[in-house]
Write a structure and sequence with these properties.
single chain; four-stranded antiparallel sheet; alpha+beta; 2 domains; six-stranded mixed sheet; 60s Ribosomal Protein L30, Chain: A; globular; 492 residues
């Protein structure tokens, strides 16, 4: 069983670009393909299936750019990302992008072929939300790689030695070896991990949903943020203090991005000009609604979305398309009330644990579950973060997350011009307000009624029932209005 990680699945990666399902996932796929070829290839063929969601969005939402950046061996925060194809071609590599009906069965399927004088690679991989990926086929052979192990593919007989490996699979054409450390074997190809938190054999976690978490906490009586530390420490085999400090690094990145967004961002290739400075300037005016801390949240959410649209550094939390909802709500409130950095870290850890439960039972991918899977999930996570900021109980945090998620059912994903800007900005702001309301309602004694685990499962079922035209394909909703179509022509 795959167990989600707070830093793999729920909060992260730190990245540039419009979409984690596109840019971050593609970057990881490109990096793994580059590793397999040992960085040596003369041609690249990228194929998208017309029956999937990437055919209309691979360029505008950054799939191509992510692949090229990974193939170049650059980090995902490299400032040259937008020009990565040019840099790749300047090395002498030929690049071809085609739309090919190869029978893809997943909405976000990538088919990547690399070749040099002696080796060929045909890799098929899927993006499963929030930058998470699975390589499902290599050169026609079925595999399963999430990027959390060192992968060694041995062509021929295995050496007569103790490999000290976690798993060994006979795939017929080759033997696939998963290990927590790199192996150097004859007649082999290797792929390094791309996730920040690795996996290991016989991995167990203390709990995996709210029901098992509450049972675990019966005699411990730990707050939600500390339960998150327990989970991630055991999941990643890392000390509790390292979990806390990893989240502190993320909080500092987010605070810096909010400051950048409020100061103003510049980037030509986007629909919206910088919005946060306009909102900041208007705050306090006589003809402007005084919403108190809610206005601070709107400003923080908008600032993060501005930075994302300007190709600045953001954190997918849980996705890039929803990068404003959770951190904008949590840090917007905390900064407005002069709360400490440790309080912010604890709140984000609590949110991350709710994200683990969602990742385990549902999805963060809008291509599978609509915008409820992205900003909706972010709203539920943000509600738990707010309860934690105000020293609420575990039960209150769970109830707030449940109530917030209940309000998101059916939220569609219909990006105008295939850009993650409109109506994405408005939906991030909307879901931030939803989190604020849910948190206060619970603190006032309202009942969530439906347990969080049941809500997550129901949300996933609703998401799968949303028509594919309204799941981040640009083929329905606002994207198909006359103005939406005019904007598509302008920006594509």
């Amino acid at each position: 069983m795959y167990y989600p990680s707070i830093f793999n699945d729920a909060i992260g990666p730190v990245m540039r670009g419009a979409s984690s399902s596109h840019v971050a996932a593609a970057h990881r796929i490109g990096a793994m393909a580059c590793d397999y070829m040992d960085g040596d290839f003369q041609s690249v063929l990228i194929e998208y299936d017309p029956n999937g969601s990437l055919e209309p969005t691979h360029d505008s939402q950054g799939s191509d750019m992510g692949l090229f950046t990974g193939l170049m061996g650059w980090p995902i925060i490299d400032e040259r990302m937008v020009e990565s194809r040019r840099f790749l071609e300047e090395t002498g590599v030929s690049v071809d992008i085609r739309i090919t009906d190869y029978g893809a069965t997943h909405e976000n399927t990538y088919k990547l072929s690399l070749e040099n004088e002696t080796h060929k690679l045909c890799m098929i991989a899927i993006s499963i939300g929030g930058g998470m990926i699975e390589v499902i086929e290599i050169n026609g052979t079925t595999v399963s790689m999430f990027g959390d192990y060192h992968e060694t593919l041995v062509f021929g007989d295995l050496p007569d030695q103790d490999l000290n490996a976690e798993y060994v699979f006979d795939r017929g054409a080759f033997t696939q070896i998963k290990s927590s450390h790199p192996l150097k074997l004859a007649n082999s190809r290797t792929i390094a991990p791309v996730l920040p938190i690795g996996a290991r054999k016989d991995l167990v976690v203390p709990f995996i949903d709210t029901q098992s978490m509450l049972a675990y906490n019966v005699e411990k009586n730990l707050p939600l943020w500390e339960l998150a530390v327990h989970y991630e420490s055991q999941r990643g085999d890392i000390p509790p203090v390292e979990v806390f400090e990893k989240m502190r690094e993320i909080v500092r990145i987010l605070d810096h991005s909010i400051e950048q967004g409020i100061a103003g961002t510049k980037y030509e290739d986007r629909i919206y000009p910088a919005q946060a400075p306009k909102f900041k300037e208007k705050t306090g005016a006589n003809n402007f609604l005084n919403l108190g801390v809610h206005n601070d949240v709107i400003l923080a959410v908008t600032a993060l979305m501005d930075v994302k649209s300007a190709m600045g550094v953001i954190v997918a939390a849980p996705t890039a398309g929803s990068c404003g909802t959770l951190p904008g709500t949590c840090l917007g409130v905390a900064n407005a009330l002069n709360m400490s950095e440790d309080q912010k870290v604890k709140a984000m850890l609590a949110a991350g644990l709710i994200g683990v439960f969602i990742a385990h039972m549902a999805t963060f991918s809008a291509e599978i579950g609509g915008c409820q899977a992205e900003t909706g999930s972010g709203s539920g996570m943000a509600a738990a973060a707010l309860i934690t900021l105000f020293d609420g109980t575990v039960d209150q945090a769970i109830s707030a997350a449940s109530m917030a998620l209940q309000n998101t059912f059916g939220l569609v994903c219909d990006p105008v011009a295939n850009r993650v800007e409109a109506p994405c900005l408005g939906k991030n702001v909307l879901m931030a307000g939803n989190a604020l309301s849910a948190a206060n309602m619970v603190l006032a004694g309202f009942e969530a009624l439906i347990p969080l685990d049941e809500v997550i499962v129901a949300m996933h079922k609703v998401g799968q029932a949303i028509p594919c035209e309204l799941r981040c394909t640009g083929k329905g909703g606002l994207a198909m209005t006359p103005t939406g179509q005019e904007l598509f022509k302008k920006f594509n």
